[in-house]
Design goal:
Layout lengths: L6 H45 L9 H12 L8 E8 L5 H19 L2 E6 L5 H9 L5 E5 L2 H4 L7 H10 L7 H11 L1 H4 L6 E6 L5 E2 L7 H8 L3 E3 L2 E3 L8 H11 L3 H8 L12 E3 L4 E4 H4 L2 H13 L1 H4 L4 H12 L5 E3 L5 E3 L2 E3 L7 E3 L2 E3 L17 E3 L9
Parallel strand pairs: 1-2, 1-4, 2-3, 6-10, 12-15
Antiparallel strand pairs: 4-9, 5-11, 6-9, 7-8, 11-12, 13-14
Helix pairs in contact: 7-15, 10-13, 10-15
Length: about 400
């Protein structure tokens, strides 16, 4: 009679077989990985052994071309983003900055969605950052300025500077104003957060865009290769920049720029006098960052910075930037956005009479009080066509 095994022993035997099978598979995998590791080590060691004893292969044109292609495709050479809308904003200015962003988005940025980059020398309150971030569909980035960007250079004599502030009579009798001018004259372009952008579009609080921006300024700058675009020209208070022109002129002569300045701008150096202080006003400007953070402009800024004029006098960043373009760039690299409808305290600029002011896509007459309607919260003193003076003449 055949002996029937107990059910429990049958289950035990099957479990043992399963365990043996799993164990065998794991050993097989481990052995395979060990052999693969040994093979890889042996081949690399062998290759390194022979490489150290034979001459390197000659670089052919094909290999050089392939290497160049690899570099071009590397992550470090990715195309930069188009525009950073840069803002210097204090906590007290947040309420009006919200209105400025709403105006700018309605006129232009709601479609383009360029990043806002908001600078400050001190951290913001969380509720302020939340409010600014929620005011737009664009990404809003915040950047705290370091000592180089917002500090006072070590070569500035504090006592001398205090005496200057005590006698200053025109808009700028504070340390923060001088730091602001210096920041926008140079360090702003080299802040790390702007490294990934091609252009910086300046936006200030208490600014309103009065018409839709139909002719895209960025596309125009790309098409023309422009380094700088502006909407207004103004006259500086010359007693606030008494040595700026002579300092900049000396720099340009030292760099051998006499002939180029004469050919491009019809300005003879040394000896020319910018008596009216005409300059590109910077509350609406677009800068090509490649040039302004590059060695040509930054070397010019550092030479001016070393003279102390931002603190001992009251050098504004607008005339500094204007002189840099006049002395170091071609006249064709500067373009005027005459079609913009734009308002800043003291000034209103509308499209020319031959133009059109579009509001939310509707074409209206460009004149003040018709299509180009000022914001009543901002009290302007003067209505201008944007070009009251001729830079370089």
């Amino acid at each position: 009679m055949r002996k029937v095994p107990h059910p429990a022993s049958v289950y035990k035997t099957k479990a043992q077989r399963g365990a043996y099978l799993v164990r065998g598979i794991l050993w097989f995998i481990a052995l395979g990985m060990l052999l693969w590791t040994i093979s890889d080590w042996w081949s690399s060691e062998s290759t390194n052994f022979w490489r150290s004893r034979v001459s390197k292969p000659k670089r052919t044109l094909v290999s050089v071309a392939l290497a160049a292609t690899a570099v071009a495709a590397s992550p470090s050479s990715k195309p930069k983003k188009d525009v950073a809308v840069i803002v210097l904003c204090r906590e007290s200015e947040v309420p009006d900055m919200l209105k400025t962003m709403a105006s700018f988005d309605e006129a232009y940025n709601a479609i383009k969605l360029h990043d806002y980059v908001i600078f400050s020398d001190v951290p913001w309150k969380q509720e302020s950052m939340d409010a600014l971030s929620s005011a737009t569909k664009s990404r809003v980035r915040f950047h705290i300025l370091d000592d180089y960007a917002w500090g006072m250079p070590k070569w500035i004599d504090r006592k001398n500077f205090s005496n200057v502030l005590a006698t200053q009579t025109y808009y700028g009798n504070t340390e923060s104003y001088r730091k602001m001018c210096r920041f926008f004259a140079g360090p702003a372009f080299t802040t790390s957060i702007l490294e990934e952008y091609r252009y910086a579009w300046r936006l200030d609080s208490h600014v309103r865009y009065l018409c839709d921006v139909v002719d895209d300024p960025i596309a125009r700058m790309d098409a023309t290769g422009a380094l700088y675009g502006y909407a207004l020209r103004m006259k500086e208070k010359m007693d606030t920049i008494p040595s700026l022109w002579s300092t900049a002129e000396e720099y340009a002569v030292g760099k051998g720029r006499k002939d180029a300045v004469k050919a491009q701008w019809d300005v003879t150096i040394p000896g020319h006098s910018l008596e009216v202080g005409c300059h590109y006003w910077n509350n609406m400007e677009i800068t090509r960052l490649e040039w302004f953070r590059g060695p040509v402009y930054q070397d010019f800024f550092k030479a001016l910075d070393a003279s102390g004029g931002f603190f001992y006098e009251r050098w504004g960043d607008a005339p500094v930037r204007t002189l840099a373009l006049l002395l170091l760039a071609e006249k064709s690299s500067v373009i005027f956005f005459d079609e913009l409808g734009y308002q800043h305290p003291w000034w209103i600029k509308c499209p020319p009479p031959s133009g059109v002011c579009f509001k939310k896509g509707v074409a209206l007459k460009p004149g003040v009080g018709e299509g180009c309607i000022p914001d009543p919260e901002i009290q302007p003193h003067t209505i201008t066509d944007g070009a009251p003076c001729n830079v370089g003449q």
